[in-house]
Amino acid sequence: MMGPRFQNDRAQLYRELRREHGPVAPIVLPGDVPGWLVLGYRELHNITNNPALYSRDSALWNMWPEIPADWPLLPMVGKQPSILYTVGERHQRRSALVSDALDSVDPFELRDHAERFADVLIDRFCGRGDADLIGEYAKALPAMVLARLYGFGDTEGAELVPHINALVNGTEGALEGRDRIMNDMKRLLRERQTRPGADVSSAIQEHEYSGEFTFDEIVEDMMVNIIAGHNPTADWIGNTLRLMLTDDRFAVSLSGGRHSVAEAMNEVLWEETPSQNIAGRWATRDTQLGNKRIRQGDLLILSFAAANADPQIRPDQHTFTGGNNAFLSFGHGDHRCPYPAQDIAEGIARTGVEVLLDRLPDVDLSVPPRTLAWRPSPWLRGLESLPVHFTPTTAAGGHG
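User: That's the sequence. What structure does it adopt?
Assistant: Structure tokens below.
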């Protein structure tokens, strides 16, 4: 799952795996660690609908005695105290706590923040006539908006952006980034205990379930939400802009055709979903799945991207998906992305794309589409960069 074909020709690799192995394929992770990649749409539904058989509790993994302390995938697979690896009734109440707090976000306030920060970022490069829409725009906007919704000031939120990106990308400074985000989150939550505001940090601590969880557990869940909310949303923006700049179905309506933004965003969730593969689930007993014998404690990695392209549900891969939203890009079952979080991500992404196209109506790629490179991640799908050019324009004004 870490080779060059997986980075550059992932869709074809999924097709070959499906032809050779069916809907569940044996894979090898770094260090010759075995696992199963679930490619089938129905099989993925089966897993996510059956937490008693396929648990999110990573402590069940039968490979722990063989996993070294420096295994590179531990941040995505390891034992964590967050909501991601909590199971049963405790997870349900913890999930309700987070979901209800996110549901307190006013959609009009969300749109206002997203528009304002989008203008701030575009003002920084609009006079140049060129930009990298990943590094200078998509990789900053969601973090800035989420930080503001959680209760951080504008300056504090902007300062968190490089730390969030370093942690998500696993680059130099990742551990320092995690420490910085955690310390800032703890400080914010403590402030809101005595001075609550109209933000997610206050809502989560005022919830009826908040007393059931420790301060550190709430901090972990806030960390998960701001980090997990930022990177897929950033890639959703970047992948949508790429599609609209390279696909004639959308490029023809760039000038004034705002209706196509929602269609392009939906198409991206089918064809280049930001959340590609999720680790994972662990079998609680020996079982059968996709004609494969799954042993107790085996690791299953859920491939949302492969399931979205399953010929059993999409026999014609070239058919325009239109308004069909039966994709698995936000997960499924108890551990799916909470619906309010999906709405927030969609609001940020759509606003980000629309504001950019409004401000820079003649934006175009500066390089041939085939030269655009994907980041080498087995979990997420996003571009390294998206270089563009456009007619230089003046700043929107009133922004720092």
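Residues 126 and 282 are 49 Å apart (CA to CA).
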